[in-house]
């Protein structure tokens, strides 16, 4: 990996240029090596949908998908996402159509204060991509790294079941159309 | 018709979801202003120490660090101390002594977030450790280390508070057939909303105007507090604007004024730049908003047959180094005297003593600000202790003793007037739902096989909706709340309130009240809260007061509008107002549905064709002073299975029957109950903030403080009864905290019940696997 040398910042940190594909758009930005991925998204790119809820990788509010896999963006440096693709909550809605997970959270009252929601939805989106019909236990296991203080998880589980169902129905519909 | 309007009783999908599910919420940390600086805080590693010196030179030498603020800098500004909401004072920054670990010691202002953190790391403080007192019982003994040397009173006693008939209660105990006594410790816990606290402060030197965006549940009260605390520096209330944007959970932790807020404002005034301060989780969980920490001795006197007669409770309350709780002024122990619960004690007496210790301020909130959880837990635990003592089924004992429905309004022996209730109705429904008799049979069979299974009940009575101005104020400000409604010419409405949602769904539920009262579709009603420049004054959202107080204001403001609308309708229909009736969300000539006017037509006329002599427009504001508190209630039944090998408690089922009076939005109420139950589960089995003898926090991060995840949390089962409040405009009682208040006792009672045949009568929460395993080992039944 090429290391960019750049002028030191005020704090004496050397900047490094990274190229990250965020929700399909390429961003080339110079960052301090110590910049956390979550701060890169929030501060450098102004994408504040990804939140910060702890400093120990426990709460999952900062969950994004790195090359399709859920990661806690507070525990990665931005430089570790160089040349990678990152998906955040801002990219869930496509062409004005909500992602099934977004629809599910709204329909099943899977959110209250909304702070854990983006991370929770990213984890859920990854789950139903990998497993089209997860059981309740599989859903609970998948989101066990995402803390919610408002909902008691019951409606989050229902939201994800709704999303998986919607996704299956859409896929089924598409398959039928194709026949 | 009702479905189109989306009025009261409909599960209307939430309006606020649209932005949250797209990552478009507006939380404080999302705000970025031109020229904004960042503040970070250096904190004490010691629980009690003298500060010999603070060397800020290395921090100031870092490029990008613009300022370091210490206590000495605040002295000439008269800002080193600030008043708390409880007639105490609190350090903003210490000048010579720190009183708890993680206390703020200095603030660094820098051009970037990371540089501010570098600055904090570079501050060198020379401390001389002092003796530490962490146990409030020891703190109250003679010769204890004095926490607050600044006070004239040279001990750690804060206040004594008592209520009830001491002599009568003592006599009842003397004469009683049966007396049970139980020591109960309800440990310190932390709300840990997923968003921490923070602020962006922006002081405009030219205009002398301060604008702050902050994580506060009570923006108006904060504006007044800022004016009172910093008025001498020229901050004047008409030029202070507090904006509470989207809040990522509050649960009471965002009511107090923390030193960081004051420092961020100070930093903005000092630098002339906007300043952002956002806590790290570790700062939040180590220094802010602790709850409970009650050391209780409770006694219950009863007749042989189980008829409850008298209650006597003595409590030591650990408030940490500063009494910074947010109770109504008259009630330093909050509404703890709801402790007679759902039972008609003829005599009762409660006393509480507050103590200072070398811990952060305690007694603040955890989804219940006013000590109702402590009360409900104690009485519901004690009822089970009595049941155990007289060998009676705990459900039967409760049904035998409940205040009967016909006794309402019921005057309790500690002075409350309960508005309405049907306690037996709720418990019987819960017993039906869970299959109580079958569970008891199963338990007998399980015990024969050596398996540990328990059933726990909690039939709690809540007390919310503070409060009537006669008795309730904070810093002298009466605890009314407000709503302003403006109906625009095209029939759309803007509703502003003095409360502030932190996830409760106000944008939907308050719109539903207005929809119901005015016949406008819920989608045409915008609700806005949290901006003191636009919203009417109110005391904010905590203690489940939004629906009981601001909900009342909303209904009454809407009714004021309807009164005026009726006159306009009469004018448009060329009829006498006496001949106009409100039917199917419209005004019509009595008995003539064909001659009717919709609210939209009336709204347009209010600006274009109103009767001569009438003021134009269709607006109203109401400041609602509730005549009484409301008393939601419920009965919860929990079934647990205990692993004899690990001591782990598994919640098999949990049925929650709640009664919060009229329900505005059943979907949202159920969501509130799910969340509340989970915050009842948490302290029952998992959460505790502990300190070692040196005052070091144990549990100062999410690594060590276990918030329940989806794996620990059971699939809650809910049901309801509906007993409207007779005095509330729409009969609603509030529900936000009920489940947090009611759940811990149901879980603890279930665990104790599982072990009762081994002679176990009480286990302090959190009931961890380790505690259970120790008991199983001691009883010789561990696997």
Class based on secondary structure composition and strand pairing of chain A: alpha+beta
Please state the overall shape of chain B, judged from the principal axes of the Cα atoms: globular
- Note poorly predicted spans of chain B: none
How many domains is the backbone of chain A divided into? 2
CATH H-level superfamily title of the largest domain in chain B: Aldehyde oxidase/xanthine dehydrogenase, molybdopterin binding domain
Give the overall shape of chain A, derived from the CA principal axes: globular
Helix content of chain A: 25-40%
Element-by-element helix/strand order of chain A? EEHEEEHHHH
| Total helical segments of chain B | 20
Mean pLDDT of chain A: 92
CATH class of the largest domain in chain A: Alpha Beta
Characterize the biggest β-sheet of chain A. Answer: 5 strands, mixed
Mind telling me the C-alpha Rg of chain B? Answer: 27 Å
CATH topology of the largest domain in chain A: Ubiquitin-like (UB roll)
User: Uncertain runs of chain A with pLDDT below 50, 5 residues or more?
Assistant: 1-8
Count of individual beta strands of chain B = 36
Nearest-integer average pLDDT of chain B: 97
């Amino acid at each position: 990996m090429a290391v960019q040398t750049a002028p030191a910042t005020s704090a004496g940190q050397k900047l490094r240029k990274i190229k990250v594909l965020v929700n399909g758009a390429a961003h080339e930005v110079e960052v301090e090596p110590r910049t956390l991925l979550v701060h890169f998204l929030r501060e450098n790119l102004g994408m504040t949908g990804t939140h910060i809820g702890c400093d120990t990788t426990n709460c999952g509010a900062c969950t994004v998908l790195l090359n399709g896999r859920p990661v806690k963006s507070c525990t990665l440096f931005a430089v570790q996402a160089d040349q990678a693709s990152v998906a955040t909550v801002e990219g869930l809605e496509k062409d004005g159509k909500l992602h099934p997970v977004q629809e599910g959270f709204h329909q099943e009252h899977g959110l209250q204060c909304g702070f854990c929601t983006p991370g929770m939805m990213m984890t859920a989106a990854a789950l139903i991509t990998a497993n089209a019909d997860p059981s309740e236990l599989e859903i609970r296991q998948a989101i066990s790294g995402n803390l919610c203080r408002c909902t008691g998880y019951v409606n989050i589980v229902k939201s994800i079941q709704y999303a998986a169902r919607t996704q299956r129905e859409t896929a089924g519909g598409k398959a039928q159309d194709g026949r | 018709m009702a479905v189109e309007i989306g009025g009261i009783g409909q599960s209307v999908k939430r309006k606020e979801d649209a932005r949250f599910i797209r990552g478009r919420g507006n939380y404080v940390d999302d705000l970025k202003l031109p020229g904004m600086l960042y503040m970070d805080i250096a904190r004490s590693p010691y629980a009690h120490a003298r500060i010999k010196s603070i060397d800020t030179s290395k921090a100031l030498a870092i490029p990008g660090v613009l300022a370091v603020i210490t206590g000495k800098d605040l002295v000439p500004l008269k800002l080193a101390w600030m008043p708390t909401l409880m007639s105490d004072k609190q350090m903003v920054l210490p000048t010579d002594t720190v009183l708890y670990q993680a206390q703020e010691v200095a603030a660094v202002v820098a051009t970037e977030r990371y540089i501010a953190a570098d600055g904090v790391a570079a501050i060198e403080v020379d401390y001389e450790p002092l003796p530490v007192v962490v146990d409030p019982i020891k703190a109250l003994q003679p010769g204890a280390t004095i926490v607050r040397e600044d006070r004239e009173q040279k001990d750690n006693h804060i206040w004594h508070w008592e209520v009830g008939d001491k002599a009568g209660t003592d006599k009842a105990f003397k004469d009683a057939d049966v007396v049970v006594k139980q020591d109960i410790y309800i440990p310190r816990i932390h709300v840990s909303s997923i968003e921490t606290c923070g602020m962006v402060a922006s002081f405009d030197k030219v205009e002398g105007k301060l604008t702050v965006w902050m994580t506060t549940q009570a923006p108006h009260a904060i504006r007044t507090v800022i004016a009172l605390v910093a008025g001498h520096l020229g901050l004047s209330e008409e030029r202070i604007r507090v904006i509470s944007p989207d809040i990522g959970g509050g649960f009471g932790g965002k009511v107090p004024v923390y030193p960081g807020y004051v420092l961020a404002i100070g930093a903005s005034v000092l630098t002339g730049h906007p300043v952002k301060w956002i806590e790290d989780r570790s700062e939040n969980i180590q220094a802010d908003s602790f709850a409970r920490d009650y050391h209780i001795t409770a006694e219950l006197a009863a007749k042989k047959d189980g008829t409850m007669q008298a209650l006597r409770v003595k409590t030591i309350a650990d408030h940490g180094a500063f009494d910074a709780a947010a109770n109504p002024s008259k009630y330093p122990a909050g509404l703890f005297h709801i402790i007679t619960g759902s039972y008609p004690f003829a005599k009762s007496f409660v006393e509480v003593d507050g103590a200072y210790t070398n811990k952060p301020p305690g007694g603040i909130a955890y989804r219940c600000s006013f000590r109702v959880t402590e009360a409900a837990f104690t009485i519901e635990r004690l009822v089970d202790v009595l049941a155990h003592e007289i060998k009676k089924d705990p459900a039967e004992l409760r049904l035998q003793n409940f205040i009967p429905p016909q006794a309402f309004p019921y005057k309790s022996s500690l002075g409350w007037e309960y508005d309405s209730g049907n306690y037996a109705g709720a418990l019987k429904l819960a017993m039906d739902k869970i299959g109580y008799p079958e569970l008891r049979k199963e338990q007998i069979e399980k015990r024969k096989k050596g398996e540990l299974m328990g059933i726990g009940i909690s039939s709690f009575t809540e007390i919310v909706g503070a409060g009537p101005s006669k008795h309730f104020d904070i810093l002298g400000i009466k605890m009314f709340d407000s709503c302003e409604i403006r109906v625009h010419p095209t029939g759309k409405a803007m509703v502003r309130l003095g409360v502030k949602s932190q996830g409760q769904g106000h944008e939907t539920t308050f719109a539903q009240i207005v929809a119901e009262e005015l016949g406008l579709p819920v989608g045409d009603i915008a609700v806005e809260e949290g901006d003191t420049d636009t919203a009417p004054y109110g005391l904010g959202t905590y203690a489940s007061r939004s629906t009981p107080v601001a909900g009342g204001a909303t209904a009454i403001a809407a009714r004021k509008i309807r009164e005026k609308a009726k006159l306009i309708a009469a004018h448009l229909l060329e009829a006498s107002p006496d001949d106009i009736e409100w039917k199917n969300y419209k005004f019509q000539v009595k008995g003539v549905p064909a001659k009717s006017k919709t609210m939209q037509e009336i709204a347009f006329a209010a600006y274009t064709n109103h009767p001569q002599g009438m003021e134009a427009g269709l607006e109203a504001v109401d400041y609602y002073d509730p005549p009484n508190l409301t008393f939601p209630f419920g009965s919860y039944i929990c079934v647990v299975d205990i692993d004899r090998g690990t001591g782990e408690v598994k919640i098999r089922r949990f049925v929650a029957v709640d009664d919060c009076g009229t329900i505005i939005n059943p979907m949202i109420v159920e969501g509130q109950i799910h969340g509340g139950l989970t915050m009842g589960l948490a302290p029952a089995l998992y959460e505790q903030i502990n300190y070692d003898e040196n005052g070091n926090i144990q549990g100062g991060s999410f690594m060590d403080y276990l918030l329940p995840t989806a794996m620990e949390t059971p699939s809650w089962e809910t049901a309801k009864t509906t007993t409207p409040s007779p005095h509330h405009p729409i009969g609603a009682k509030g529900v936000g905290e009920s489940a947090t208040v009611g759940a811990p006792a149901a879980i603890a009672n279930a665990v104790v019940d599982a072990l009762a045949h081994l002679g176990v009568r009480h286990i302090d929460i959190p009931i961890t696997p380790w505690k259970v395993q120790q008991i199983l080992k001691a009883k010789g039944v561990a696997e």
